[in-house]
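hey
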């Protein structure tokens, strides 16, 4: 009997765990391509200012918002990774005017990927956590209609997740099997499984909203804030959705980006912010509301549709929607 100690190294890589979770190889290859892209993006984020990736790229996105250099670079990295992935059929993103057909379903392009390549752009130049958000839909369209595969309700997602480029590089991935979290080991260059089957706490007295817009909020939301202020809630707001949602997933609470007078449909984008984050939170046992209905029920009209977002612990979301959208 050898007396060498059993190996206690965590060597559960993303690929290994996806196989263990029974994720089919085509979808696994798309998720691994996205993880590779995020490793590259994270490398550039960590070198911001060393590399000339901070500041405006000189163009605007479809919203007329100034594109940061890192927005454009991140988008190009994801697109390159997916071009090299046979199961990736369509790509759409915040930085692209419209969907890009990589290969139709008849040639193996069975999945449509939508992404917010760099979320939290306004935080890049001050070294605050930013991230990448992605959503994967089945591409079951006839070849000539491949581009329409991106316009499906969030309920149809087969996987979704995000990477936070924070004090560590963390991948959170939701599939039919549940929500798993991985941390990048910078030496091995692998995302290693650190928690499987994440469940969001059922309640937590934390709310996350940009209260600078309070004068724009409707009476129901103002009533919620009055309730929270009187019930001993804590406030946390990082200004990068990916970081605010990641904290909400792990600690509980509610993240709110409501419709305002300035943004009557809300600011956040349905297809590559609301839907993927809603999928993750619901898979973890939480709720993700667009106000009157779940985000994932929303029928998209355009790849860049916006949505209200009220997501987090079920009880905490209920405290908001019972006031903003009373039954
Ligand atoms: P993006 O950088 O992809 O445009 O997203 C920014 C979003 C989101 O990350 C965050 O929750 C929200 O903008 C913050 O908006 P405010 O600055 O209006 O609070
Ligand atoms: Mn974003
Ligand atoms: Mn973005």
């Amino acid at each position: 009997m050898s007396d060498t100690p059993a190996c206690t190294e965590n060597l559960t890589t993303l690929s290994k765990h996806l196989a263990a979770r029974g994720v089919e190889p085509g979808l696994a290859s798309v998720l691994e391509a996205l993880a590779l892209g995020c490793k590259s993006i994270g490398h550039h984020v960590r070198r911001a200012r060393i590399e000339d990736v901070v500041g405006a790229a000189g163009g605007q996105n479809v919203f007329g918002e100034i594109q940061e250099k890192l927005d454009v670079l991140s988008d190009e990295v994801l697109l390159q990774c997916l071009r090299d992935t046979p199961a990736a059929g369509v790509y759409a993103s915040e930085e692209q005017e419209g969907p890009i057909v990589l290969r139709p379903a008849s040639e193996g392009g069975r999945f449509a990927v939508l992404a917010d390549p760099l979320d939290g752009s306004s935080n890049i130049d001050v070294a605050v956590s930013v991230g990448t958000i992605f959503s994967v839909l089945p591409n079951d369209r006839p070849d000539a209609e491949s581009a329409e595969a991106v316009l499906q309700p969030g309920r149809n997602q087969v996987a979704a997740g995000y990477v936070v480029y924070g004090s560590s590089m963390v991948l959170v991935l939701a599939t039919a099997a549940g929500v798993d979290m991985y941390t990048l080991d910078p030496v091995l260059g692998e995302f290693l499984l650190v928690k499987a089957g994440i469940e969001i706490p059922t309640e937590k007295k934390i709310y996350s909203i940009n209260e600078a817009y309070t004068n724009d909020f409707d009476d129901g939301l103002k009533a919620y804030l009055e309730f929270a202020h009187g019930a001993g809630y804590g406030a946390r707001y990082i200004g990068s959705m990916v970081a605010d949602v990641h904290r909400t997933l792990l600690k509980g609470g509610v993240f709110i980006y409501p419709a305002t007078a300035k943004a009557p449909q809300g600011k956040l984008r349905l297809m590559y912010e609301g839907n993927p984050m809603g999928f993750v939170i619901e898979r973890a046992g939480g709720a993700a509301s667009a106000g009157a209905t779940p985000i994932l029920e929303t029928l998209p009209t355009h790849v860049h549709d916006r949505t209200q977002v009220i997501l987090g612990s079920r009880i905490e979301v209920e405290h908001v929607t019972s006031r903003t959208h009373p039954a």
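The radius of gyration is 20 Å. The mean pLDDT is 95.
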